[in-house]
Amino acid sequence: MKLGSFIGIVTLKVLMTRQxxxxxxxxxxxxxxxxxxxxxxxxxxxxxxxxxxxxxGPVQLIRKGDWKLLRFVLNNKIELYHMYSxxxxxxxxxxxxxxxxxxxxxxxxxxxxGHPQFPLTxxxxxxxxx
Length: 130
What we know:
This protein has helices at about 10-15, 30-35, 100-110, and strands at about 50, 60-65, 65-70, 75-80. By secondary structure, the chain is of the alpha+beta class. The protein has 2 domains: about 5-35, no CATH class; about 50-110, Arylsulfatase, C-terminal domain (2-Layer Sandwich), CATH 3.30.1120. Strands 1-2-3-4 form a 4-stranded antiparallel beta sheet, with helices on one face. The longest helix is centred in the last third of the chain and has 14 residues, at about 100-110.
């Protein structure tokens, strides 16, 4: 797992070493420019991927531009929202945009780096280990 998988690690490295990171070691982008108020020169990701395992999880999410796709792993249900016109995520539009769903699912499938500590299975974080 590359270090950039953890939010903020690139920015911390830049702040601590005053050196930029190579993509061989880290797959993230420093947000130091944004912290310093320089949003014009702030590099941006093409998309953002994240997942969580709490509540209705495991759930995978991807955001690209105005679109946000959720995949509920246990039943493979997907939901698509157009964030510009529906910031509250009230109108699920996957049936109307199958091509956008497929594009985002393809990105999602390639974005995840598997790790034994973070499986996409239902877990109970409160269950005591034996």
